[in-house]
Write a structure and sequence with these properties.
Elements (H helix, E strand, L loop, with lengths): L1 H18 L7 E7 L2 E7 L4 E5 L6 E8 L6 E7 L6 E10 L2 E11 L7 E2 L7 E4 L2
Length: about 130
């Protein structure tokens, strides 16, 4: 019985180490997309805001995505009620900066999928201090 208690505690410790090894992001990052100055504001609680890409500030959530090999940060936003859409920025960590490797968008509704939005180059987003 004592052996099973130690085994369960060991498994919990191992699981907490695995779950706790994510990217910790907090702060503002600025870059240029097609000539527009864009600011992305990340918070540790998983919320994110983007300024400058759309006329209004958009808020949403960010997650660390590990499906495609190297970890990426996906920030997803929903547009305003008068123009419902979903927007996703896909960032690749590059030291203390982020490379914007993809932008995807779609109108909200049944059966629609996120489609790539063409951007020039691979914009670099740098932290603001």
């Amino acid at each position: 019985m004592l052996r099973s208690v130690f085994r369960n505690v060991g498994l919990l410790i191992l699981l907490s180490l695995f779950v706790g090894c994510g990217i910790n992001i907090d702060g503002d990052y600025t870059g240029n997309i097609d000539g527009k100055k864009i600011t992305v504001k990340f918070e540790n609680n998983g919320s994110v805001a983007v300024l400058g890409y759309f006329p209004k500030e958009l808020t949403g959530l960010w997650v660390e995505e590990k499906t495609f090999g190297n970890p990426q940060i996906w920030a997803t936003f929903d547009g305003p009620k008068e123009k419902p859409f979903r927007l996703r920025f896909e960032f690749k960590p590059e030291g203390e900066n982020f490379l914007l490797v993809g932008v995807k968008a779609r109108p909200l509704g049944k059966g629609t999928k996120l489609n790539p939005v063409k951007i020039d180059g691979t914009p670099l987003f740098k932290p603001q201090f």
